[in-house]
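ugh ok fine here u go
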Amino acid sequence: MCGTRLAAVCPRAVPAPTDPMPFRSMSVLTALLHVLIALRLVPALASSRPLWPLAALAIVALLVSAATIPLPFLSRGIAKKTSAVDVLKWIGLISMGWFSSLFVLTILRDVGMLLTWAVGAASGMVIDWPALRQWSAVAVLGVATAISLIGFVNARRTAGIKRVDVPITGLPAALDGFTIAQLSDIHVGPTIKGGYIRRIVEAVNGLDADVVAITGDLVDGTVPELRDHIAPLAGLRARHGTFVVTGNHEYYAGAHAWIVELRRLGLTVLLNEHVVLQGRPPRGAQTDEEVNADALVLAGVTDFTAGHFDAAHASDPRASLVGAPLGTTTRVLLAHQPRSAAAAADAGFHLQLSGHTHGGQFFPWNLFVPLQQPFTAGLHKLSDMWVYVSRGTGYWGPPKRFGAPSEITLLRLVPERL
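structure:
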């Protein structure tokens, strides 16, 4: 039975996720990086008497950061989950976000000072090095802190509505204006709980969409841990219902159990499968061919990497169309990662909705997304297929978004204008 569609709910063991490096090694590495930053910034601040308080504050902040960044990982091993554990995770993740910006800006400061030295040496320009070292160190601390504060506010607010029109060649009149409300990468877990989800549900229900699509990375934890926090999703309302595909984080958290739980809540999980949805009701009698032509095939595939966790879940856009009515002319695919797009275009889809990238979430991670994914955010064309990549409705890791705002996307299908 586990070789059939029911494989999704078979209680097959999935290896528990492991940390990218041993906990102790990670703690030592982060501590050393904090020491490096202290050596680059604190002496410059301490060289000026008016800046001594800031130098002392920087030392305290770096000590707190170095001590708390490992806490979210350490708390994974605590069997009894309490509010104190959640507080530890919050502190560690906020520190992680601040330190990330501080580290990058410290490197940029050093590069900038090296370039300044080169220009000065080549031109004979006189440079006040003590003042430059002092105030550039102040700037690094101030900008890192400001970015983290702004990023925190951006991450914790309810995602805004982003409206996108997608022109589809040959779109039937019955599907003109068909709307899909897309949620992606919510990452319910350490810092995203039920209240956050309820606000999202309220915003989506106000859109009166034809379909709600959740394109993966919904959770960062097990069903027993997060069942109550995910429960508000049962309140999502759309004409045709809510459809979900798995992301890589579902597999880290135990995808099989989550598939069962999401279906229990009334959500439709598509595992290399499709549904056929009708557009606006016909005005008169229609033949079967006309009914099919006016319908939309909404398909969903498992995450691009799902086959590494369970061979039965290997992602396959072409298989998701097996059994679809031949007369349907509009095909939309839900696929967590943008890199599913090449296979989706070959399979004949008109539109793929994805997430995974978070739009980079905050600098400099947006620079690394193109190394793995063909698209970072927004609407793109691949051959004859459109690809829309959401920046995500939540966030992962540090509660921080800067330059990549979260979104609830309302996509509207419209005829392509020639």
